[in-house]
Design brief:
Layout (H helix, E strand, L loop, with lengths): L2 E8 L2 E2 L5 E2 L2 E8 L4 H12 L6 E7 L8 E3 L2 H13 L8 E7 L2 H11 L1 E2 L2 H15 L3 E6 L3 E6 L7 E6 L6 E7 L8 H4 L4 H10 L12 H12 L5 H16 L2 H6 L1 H11 L4 E6 L5 E7 L1 H7 L7 E6 L7 E6 L9 H14 L1 H10 L1 H4 L15 H9 L8 H24 L7 H14 L3 E4 L4 E6 L2 E6 L4 E2 L3 H5 L4 H10 L13 H7 L17 H4 L17
Parallel strand pairs: 1-7
Antiparallel strand pairs: 1-4, 2-3, 5-6, 5-7, 8-12, 9-10, 10-11, 11-12, 13-14, 15-16, 17-18, 18-19, 19-20
Amino acid sequence: MSKISVMLQLNGNWDSYGRFRDFQVDGIVLDEDASYSMLVSTIAEQLMIDTSEKIVEIKYIVNENCPPMDIRNNMGVRVYMETKKENKNLGSYPLLISVRDFNMELLLQMRTQVQVYQDKQAIATAMKHYSIMHKFQFRVKRSSHRSYWLICIGENYNWHFKAISINDSAMFKIRSFNRQHTCTLMDDTFIQRKRTAVVVSSMVMPMYCDPKTVYIPKDIQTDMLSQHGVNLSYMQAWRAKKKALQFLRGHPADSYNKLPKYFYILEKTYPGSVVKLKKTTDECFLYAFVALCTSISGWKYCRPVVVVDGTFLKTTYMGIMLTASTMDAAGSYTLDEFNERMSKIEEIDPRVKSYLYDIGYYRWSRVHATVNKTWTMTSNIVESLNAVTKDAREMPIFDLLEYMRTLLERWTKEKLLKAKGTFTFLGYKFNKELEKNNTLSQKLRVRASTDHIHTVIDGVKRYIMCLESKKCSCGQFQLDELPCAHALAVLRHKNETYENYCSPYYTRESLLSTYEIPVNPLPDESKWNVPQHITDEVVNPPTGEKRQPGRP
């Protein structure tokens, strides 16, 4: 079955001439015979729209002299597809997407006019929203597979709602609905109902789709009061947030049982990856290890200096996430320079020098390092990584691992595009450092001693430079593996170029090779084809200390 690419234009405005302006652009891929519901669900998934809370309106323009055409049903989709196939360019006939909130009262009125619901759960959801908007309570008098009957919580009041099954099917139709509500059991008793947290959680759920969004219980209280006139306690708002997160992410214990299937799909999607799942003898989770083939392949083009760090997880079962990464940083190049700076530190506070000594100079000083770590002497890059994953640490383990995978997917794509946009021999950072050294080299004088050894004069200071061994008495050349100002002065004196004196790790070619293997997206979980023995594998939550329930 052939596919059709469709451009989306969204979040725009219609001007006075009927043109769509100031829009954002996205894209989707559809089957030629896609239905209207499939079109809406594909758009909603791509744009992360909750269709239970939002209405997606779809239009397209055939030519500028005609008003935009609405797509509201399967026939509209078929007409659009035929028009689209006449010109298969992505930019031809883009879909114009508008998104607006549900008006729950209007929706309920529309449904009472047509008097048909998809199922009983749809009735329950609509009525819970309706009660929130109007600040009243009802109770269920009768609920079965054939009927759903609601009455006012107060006695001797006429408000009621009745719906019955259509020919014993899942669909329900409204039999009678008295909207008039006269009881006074409003604010105080209304907010005491346990179901309030469930209803509010469904209303605030879109706020938690992105783990980076900060939306605390206090925000829920404020919004519910200002938008709906409902005064919630902090605990009710906290429970609503908890239920919304549980609905989106599932129960934390269930997340562990997804790991065997998830790791199987990772190995199939990314051949050459290393994934390990370790359990205890009683099938409890112990640890998981993931190294995707993209990282493994790109690693040989990176300097073999690894920064490993651990950060505590904030989920129900807690735990620690370890990450391994590379980084860029600076420090002193010669022992004299190091000693001079340490003396200045000692003058300020001798305790600082003692503290640094106890740590071990070799751990953070270039000149004392037992191996050449070049630009890697601190673990700041890990702290940056921890900042990016800060909010994800509250996710269940399955969602956390998938968040890290999508993060790597995005970063790999961005780094590859940046590498392709680099047109210098070195990567951007190292080329910038080289340009700075080249500027400094302009004022230096060079005196040759042999073919490879030169004396470089910088004012009253003299430096010995050997091109053959790629060393300079300043220490920078051999530690950075990038020509220092003295080396560039000698190269200019000999009329040579710098390319052969730079570390291959710094070149544009290495950058391209590092990110040449993309992290392709995983198929939707519903499409996973997993062997039965993998599906049947049990992974229980880890034993030991568990985060205490209740208000933190």
